Please model this.
Amino acid sequence: MATNRTFTMLKPDSVEKGNVGAILEKISASGFRIVAMKMTQMTKTDAEEFYAVHNERPFFGELVQYMTRGPIVAAILEKDNAVEDFRTLIGATNPADAAEGTIRKLYAESMGENAVHGSDSDENAEIEGAFHFSGREMF
Ligand code: UDP
Ligand code: MG
Model:
């Protein structure tokens, strides 16, 4: 069911810097349809659960601090091959390694503060979308 959908967050640095409009424009221009979207702020518990796969990593505490320090924009996006195409659009985790023209190359500061999230599999897109949205918030 989720093969044509992915999940994204425009992270707190994107909101703080006023980059939400530009990033959404790029997402739309790249052929993604916005299925669900909201501005919200994750609690510590939310972030710890969302990033649980990383909870043994040395950067986990900083990651939770970063992701909870201000509002994010969460969205579900639809396009053929959504997960893979969106990962290509955002670029490498470390913006220093991200390809020219990618969202992280254009808008990210560092490996830690890297502007956007993109799901890494269809299964995680489904789980992450459901973490933030109920069925009747999806259009
Ligand atoms: N992260 C970090 N240091 C690292 C690796 C990751 O601060 O060495 C943060 C970064 O914000 C990244 C998030 O943890 O986006 C999740 O890491 P992942 O490896 O899943 O990267 P992504 O899938 O976001 O590219
Ligand atoms: Mg990841």
Summary: Residues 91 and 118 are 10 Å apart (CA to CA). Residues 122-132 form the longest helix (11 residues). The longest strand covers residues 33-40. The mean pLDDT is 97.
